[in-house]
Amino acid sequence: MLMAYSRSASGGDGNCSRRITVSVKPKCNTADCPCAEKGMSAPFTLSGEIECKGGVGAENRYLLKYNVTNKSDCVLALQSLSLLNQVVKTSSSRIEPKTTQTGMSVGFGTSVKTPPPSETKISATVQYTLNGRKCTETFYLLYRRCH
Fold this sequence. Notes:
mainly beta
C-alpha cells in the first residue's frame, strides 16, 4: 500500500491524500520440460566459437564466446561446459523461456602439455537445468587457432 499526502506551498498540511493499493500475483513456470532424449532436438541452441589466445606461463589460454537461444517453455540455466579436457563454469544466468541471450564469454586455460587442437570444430558437453531438472547436451563450436 502506498500513501501520499500533500503539503501547501508554505509547508503546512495540505488537504489532499491518496492511497494506492498494489497487489502482485506471482507467475510460476509450471511447464514440463524433460531433458532431450537420443534422437530429439535439444531444448536450446548454443552457438559460438573458441578462440586460442596463445600461451601464458604454463597454460594455453582460450576465450569462449557464445550465444544461447532457449526454445523451451522452461527456465534454462547453463551450469558448465566440458571442452578441451576442461570443465568451464558459465556465468549463472537464467535464460527465460523463448528468449535469446547473446554476447556471453568466458576465458579458460589448459596445460601447455596439452597441445592446441588441430580441428576447426570442438565438441562441448553442456551441463544445464530446465526448471531445476539437470540435463546434458553436446554441441559443436567453431575453433580459431592461435596466430
